Amino acid sequence: MNNNEIKEIVLNIIKKYTLKKEELENLPENPHIINDLKINSARIVEIIIDIEEKFNIEIENELLKKINYLNDIIDIIKSKVEKKNN
Amino acid sequence: MTNRVVVTGMGVLSPIGNNIKEFTENLKSGISGIKYIPELKDFGFRCQIGGLINYSFEYDEILRNFFLESASKFVKYTIITAHEAFKTANLQFEYDPDSEPDFDTGVIIGSSIGAIDYYINTIYQKVINKEIRKLRSTTTEYSMISAPSAILAGIIGAANYVGFNSSACATGLESIILGYNRIKNGEAKRMITGGVDIYSPYAWAGFEALRILPIDYNDKPTKASRPMSKSASGFVPAEGCGIIILENLEVAIKRNAPIFAEIIGAAINSGGQRNGGSITASNPQGLISCIQNALHSANINAQEIDYISGHLTSTSNDTKEIYCWAKALNRYNEDFPYINALKSLTGHCQSAAGTIETIAAIIQMNENFLHPSLNCEDLHPEIEHIVSHTKIPFFTKSNLYLQTIIKANLGFGDINAVLILKKFNL
Q1: Does the beta-carbon distance from A16 to B97 stay under 8 Å?
Q2: Alpha helices in B217-352 (DSSP H)
Q3: Which of A24, B33, B138, B265 could form a disulfide with B297 if both were Cys (CB 3.0 to 4.6 A apart)?
Q4: By residue range, what is the domain housing residue B385?
Q5: Considering B201, B228, B261, which residue would you say is the last residue of a domain?
């Protein structure tokens, strides 16, 4: 699975939680989750649970602190999925 | 200085209708919403009937718009009902995070059993299976008892008093009175008030334990709720939600709002659980005094009351309630006002009862009819002694003129609430 495919799945999950759907158009290349995607910080947990279910992985609490930008999530997913497949 | 308070919006979700239109039609035709509930038999309940809401929550557009598809039931009921209330009030019901907080609007939505479904189906399951990690971040906001008020306030940006009330079966009426007092005293311009309670075998089990549910009607559910009848053998549990929007009259007029009724007086008290009162029974002194306090606050004479929307649950307390009305109003037999019991159609919607019954009373006042009080053809002799048969509609009565109406609800804890409404005239 390449980065773009992961990005599309993640954005679809995020779409469920964003307060303003129109903000999802014209996003910067690597958007900040809370500032650019207008996500209530309490919803980050929801997004992580959805991602865990979707990719069948487990994201440890320590990793949560490292997530600020969309690419942070994508990197974590990528490495977890690769590890699982090996 | 006190302000005049009017009702400008109403929404209902009940065993006899999912909106004001259906509800009004079923009031007029006097349809019972009580049905057999197979699950209660499986659980070993002796009373296997109740009044349930027949609404499809799956794929509901309103819930989806506000991300509430997995919320607790009492939150869902509240938001769907509030959506209708706002529509009837000609007010916007949409979330705009960029709007300013509305410091003139408050919310008070009460409940008795709260998010019991959510605790049992979601929280308990995850905790007992050691899956706390999988609990969603919304767990607290969907299960806290103030969830309906808080979530509703967030949607509309309400920034006046946002709170919760609970006084058992008087909850719905109490929330209207609390909102009314705030506007009357100039502390708010608009209050969203209401009550909500859901069906749950875990909550209804407590009623079963009290032996206050009727057990002989599982094969004829529509006959079970019989307020004022000599064969009344217990209240029929039900679920529901009612929302009433109250507004300062000047504000309502300025925005050209529809006005369904004016609230002219109210009172709340308790019988102190003395002199015949207890946690489950009412002290007549308390109710009589509450009715008289409400009349006093409305500054009207008891003779002006055209119609009583009683609490009347279909228990032995009905006779005591009728005695209190007659005594407090000093009106007997042919002079007794019209009276009926909505619980004969809906069952007892618990914390929603007060709001749903007030909505029914307002609809009847505005359309000048009375819905039938079902199953009381065999009137209790003690009631027959006080109220003339002509004052109880056994069938729908129309072409009446109802100008001033009084509504009471009584709650466990010997709590009384009384509200007086009038047709609106400038």
Answers
A1: no
A2: 249-254, 284-298, 317-329, 343-346
A3: B265
A4: 267-422
A5: B261
Phi, psi for residue B250 in degrees, rounded to 5:
-60, -40
Question: Are B134 and A49 a contacting pair at CB < 8 A?
Answer: yes
What is the Cα–Cα distance from B89 to B148, expressed in whole angstroms?
Answer: 19
Q: Are residues B400 and B306 in the same domain?
A: yes
Q: Which domain holds residue A64?
A: 3-85
Q: Cα(B107)–Cα(A6) distance, rounded to whole angstroms?
A: 42
CB atoms within 10 A of CB A17: 18
State whether residue A44 sits within 8 Å of chain B by CB.
yes
Which CATH number is A71's domain given?
Answer: 1.10.1200.10
List per-residue pLDDT tens for chain B, 426 residues long.
799 999 999 999 999 999 999 999 999 999 999 999 999 999 999 999 999 999 999 889 999 889 899 999 999 999 999 999 999 999 999 988 889 999 999 999 999 999 999 999 999 999 999 999 889 889 999 999 999 999 999 999 999 999 999 999 999 999 999 999 999 999 999 999 999 999 999 999 999 999 999 999 999 999 999 999 999 999 999 999 999 999 999 999 999 999 999 999 999 999 999 999 999 999 999 999 999 999 999 999 999 999 999 999 999 999 999 999 999 999 999 999 999 999 999 999 999 999 999 999 999 999 999 999 999 999 999 999 999 999 999 999 999 999 999 999 999 999 999 999 999 998
Give the ipTM of the model, two decimals please: 0.71
